[in-house]
Amino acid sequence: MKFTQEYLLSVFDYNSETGVLKYKHRPLNHFKTKSAHTNWNNNKAGKVLNYVGNHGYIEVSLDYKKHLAHRLIWLMIYGEIPREIDHRNGIKTDNKLLNMLNSDRVSNCRNLPLRKSNKLGITGVRSRRYGYEVYIHNKGSLINLGNTKDFFEAACLRKSAERKFGFSLNHGRK
């Protein structure tokens, strides 16, 4: 990303409490021609940016390229490019400042929703002939937490391991 904090602040208006991002009226020096300047400001200035892309995040078009709104917002507010943004509540379109956390891949994966292919309704529990197998991934390692015939016990094993390894309370949400 080649943008500066100053440039983004001149292009966007952001409300940190609502998470709403809007295009601002842009100055003539942002454009190659006067007609491009006029066209932009007549069609886009004041518009709420709410286009949701294929991955579920709000996308923004800026300088003829698409960008993820939450990454631009982070740069606007903090002046740095984030490693990864974790939406704490798991809602990819909720760009309130309190909902965003500059994270790394490991931490972000500790706040994932339940996979659509999950049949049991809890992450890290597999049905086996003898009952249930319980496991967790932690920092690249697969850890077997044990086997049990009781589903509730399997769920408790998994949830306690999530607490032990610092997973989000939202991890595995539906």
Strand content: 15-25%
Number of strands: 9
Arithmetic mean pLDDT:
91
Largest sheet: 3 strands, antiparallel
Q: Give the helices and strands as they follow along the chain.
A: HEEHEEHEEHEEEH
Structure in words:
The chain is elongated. It contains 5 helices and 9 strands; from the N terminus they run αββαββαββαβββα. The strands form 4 sheets. Strands 7-8-9 form a 3-stranded antiparallel β-sheet, covered by helices on one side. A two-stranded antiparallel ribbon has the order 1-2. With 174 residues, the chain is α+β, with helices and mostly antiparallel strands. Strand 3 and strand 4 (65-68) form a beta hairpin. 19% of the residues are buried. It has helices spanning 5-11, 34-43, 69-78, 105-109, 151-164, and strands at 12-14, 21-23, 59-62, 65-68, 84-87, 100-103, 125-128, 131-138, 141-148. 26% of the residues lie in helices and 24% in strands. The mean pLDDT is 91. Helix 1 crosses helix 3.
Secondary structure layout plus pairing:
Blueprint: H1 5-11, E1 12-14, E2 21-23, H2 34-43, E3 59-62, E4 65-68, H3 69-78, E5 84-87, E6 100-103, H4 105-109, E7 125-128, E8 131-138, E9 141-148, H5 151-164
Antiparallel strand pairs: 1-2, 3-4, 5-6, 7-8, 8-9
Helix pairs in contact: 1-3
Name its key features.
single chain, alpha+beta, three-stranded antiparallel beta sheet, 5 helices, 26% helix
Quick rundown:
With 174 residues, this protein is an alpha+beta fold.
